[in-house]
Amino acid sequence: MPEFVGALDQGTTSTRFMVFDHDGREVARHQLEHRQLLPRPGWVEHDPLEIVERMEQAVAGALSKAGLRLVDLAAVGLANQRETTVLWDRHSGKPFCNAIVWQDTRSEGVVRALEERGEGRLVRRKSGLPPSTYFSAGKLRWALDNVEGLQAAVTAGTACFGTVDSWLVWNLTGGTRGGLHVTDVTNASRTMLFGLRSLGWDDDLLAVFGIPRELLPEVRPSVGDFGNATFGLKGAQRVPLAAVLGDQHAAMVGQVCLQPGEAKNTYGTGNFLLLNTGAEIVRSASGLLSTLCYQLGDVAAVYALEGSVAVTGSAVQWMRDQLGLISSAAETEVLAEQVPDSAGVYFVPAFSGLFAPYWRPDARGVIVGLTRAATKAHLARAVLEAICFQTRDVVLAMEKDLGAPLRALKVDGGVTANSLCMQLQADILGVPVSKPAVAETTALGAAYSAGCAVGFWSGPDELRQLWREERRFEPGWSEDQRESAYAGWKRAVERSLGWAGNA
Length: 503
Known about the structure:
Elements: E1 4-10, E2 14-20, E3 26-33, E4 45-46, H1 48-66, E5 73-80, E6 85-89, E7 99-100, H2 108-116, H3 120-127, H4 136-146, H5 150-156, E8 159-163, H6 164-172, E9 182-184, H7 185-188, E10 194-195, E11 200-201, H8 203-209, E12 218-220, E13 228-229, E14 239-246, H9 247-254, E15 263-267, E16 271-278, E17 289-294, E18 302-309, H10 313-323, H11 330-336, E19 346-348, E20 366-368, H12 376-402, E21 409-412, H13 419-429, E22 433-436, H14 441-453, H15 460-466, E23 469-473, H16 479-496
Parallel strand pairs: 1-5, 5-14, 9-12, 15-21, 21-22
Antiparallel strand pairs: 1-2, 2-3, 4-7, 6-8, 10-11, 13-14, 15-16, 16-18, 17-18, 19-20, 22-23
């Protein structure tokens, strides 16, 4: 058997391909950003063809760095940004429009009308999700109503819908020459069209949104047969695509949170805290989501409780790209370390409204507490604190639902490279924060899942032996300091509400 496994991690801002050995150690990676298209306030788009191009370049780049060929990989796993909606023609392979990104809020009218019709309760009960612009169904309904030529293609039977995983798998397995139109249970569970208990597209939910079933991909377990992939490489090279998971679900596998009660928080474009609830669907009374955790082949599905935060790492990107205050993400830590605190400045990055536990699409970003003495260093520190305060919001909601306190937090994702931010996280939560040796656990989880599918790894017990902690951050703030800072955060959140649309 080949000695390596590959992982394609297609995220909100970039695409990376990583190669891992049998010890779960990184052998090579190549990562490329793609454009963030912002045609109107509240609209966020990606070019689906650009994403395919970046994917092919990332794979070729990583393999070249390692001196490997595609056939040197036992299998590849795919992890992807969730909820982002892609629509394309199966005959031409061309998208009908840009991908509508999970952060996009243009479907607010669709969601509001659903609630006004009294159908929100049905959506919550069957899908486990609150009606929100976050999820795919509203974006799909908006596209059917507004994208020229799409409805005619639906009638003709040539239109395909999918989250990013479906779009990539279709391209990887042949595209217009018989590509597979499939998804996995984790991505399907983020659409508001998927029955959590039935593990299939739900007729009642399809009727609520007026979605034709023939648009939708076939749903498969997260680990199994997703065809053989070429990744655009020349020649007859192919590799088994043996796992597909939404990025946060892949990170659960990468952090080896495979038992009920185990949790992790991923710091990427947004923050996503998931807790494994096993075979039980836990219904939140505190603003969290019930969702699929994963389904490993023919084994019964595993569920999770999730707190999703829209803007965390992307707030750092906003400082770089929109404000021009920094030239790289690493500068945020350097700036923030220049001051001992934020001097009372709070930043609420509600660019796409507020997700868990508030679910307020009418919220918008605010900066409060400014004085003449405030500098960009104070703003940088407030941005890092906002990442951590939003995590505390979710942790408190999860503790309320479960009736038990959090003892420690496993963390991963790009923001964990910022040691000041991770120390602030421990200070604001009041619990230790544990960073693994491999911070990119989304890619690692995709690799683990694919590797287990083909026998490269034997299963969960072997994966647990591979997990290693790199650093632990212990809380340093007093209880009074922690509670005072959080009270200020809650006041700032109140000021962000009601700025857009209807509450």
